[in-house]
Amino acid sequence: MKLSSLATALLASSVLFSAGAYAEPITVSGSAAFTSDYLFRGVSQTSNNAAVQAGMTLTHESGAYVSAWGSSIASAAGGSEMDLLLGYSGKAGEVGYDVGVMHYGYPGADGAVGYDEVYASVSTMGLKVGLNYSPDYFAQSDKFMYLYAGYSTEVSGVTLSGSLGMNKFDSNAMMTKALGTTGTDDSYMDYKLAASTAVSGVTVEGAYIGSDIDEKDCGAGLCEGRFVLTVSKGF
């Protein structure tokens, strides 16, 4: 069974479960956001323009959860992205963990651009380390691995965070196919440094996000570092 078929089946069963198959507590949470640029793993998905985003998560008291998240985009994949997740999170002592499967979809675009990933992470004392793997990444670009680490802490009501990720493709040709880059590399690093705080009931984040892909290898400045402002509201 392909991962996309597995994700669909599991998501369907989760919806039935949350709808009342069992009388167990379900927590519903969500958010809406406006961002000056939507960068995914250091690369702009909106042609360096703003995006509107929203998501919702249903979490069972056992730790199982199902999520849907969407964003406007402006790329070869079309004008919108819709992601579906099914996962399980919990704690073992002071260490938190999160595992699951995720489908990245692009409504209205060629079905070949959508893909699936499995993910796992552990976290403790503000530090988080994770690994994502896709057997066939964006635009059917074969195997892909994403290894990342991040840290966050709060100082006087301001959350400070940083992350660094390594994107590894199966070959240079597959990186070119997925990202449209023209270099000779088969991997790259992405980074994010951010500060956020609550202002009048909304969260305001300022972040510097980018990648180490050479400017000449990535057209239209899509991979360059830039400041991104995001305003979000949880509910």
Question: On the 0-100 scale, what is the average pLDDT?
Answer: 92
Low-pLDDT segments: 16-23
Question: How much helix is in the residues?
Answer: 10-25%
Shape: globular
Main sheet summary: 12 strands, antiparallel, barrel
The computed structural class is: mainly beta
Q: Within the largest sheet, what's the order of strands? A: 1-4-5-6-7-8-9-10-11-12-13-14
CA radius of gyration is 18 Å
Q: In DSSP terms, counting alpha (H) and pi (I) runs of 4 or more, how many helices? A: 2
Distance between the termini: 36 Å
Number of strands: 14
Strand % is over 45%
In sequence order, what are the helices and strands, one letter per element?
Answer: HEEEEEEEEEEEHEEE
What does this protein structure show overall?
This protein has 235 residues and is mainly beta. It is 11% helix and 58% strand. Strands 1-4-5-6-7-8-9-10-11-12-13-14 form a twelve-stranded antiparallel β-barrel. The chain has a two-stranded antiparallel sheet with strand order 2-3.
Blueprint (SSEs and pairs):
Blueprint: H1 3-21, E1 26-35, E2 39-40, E3 43-44, E4 51-60, E5 64-75, E6 78-92, E7 95-105, E8 115-124, E9 127-134, E10 144-155, E11 158-169, H2 172-179, E12 187-199, E13 202-211, E14 226-234
Antiparallel strand pairs: 1-4, 1-14, 2-3, 4-5, 5-6, 6-7, 7-8, 8-9, 9-10, 10-11, 11-12, 12-13, 13-14
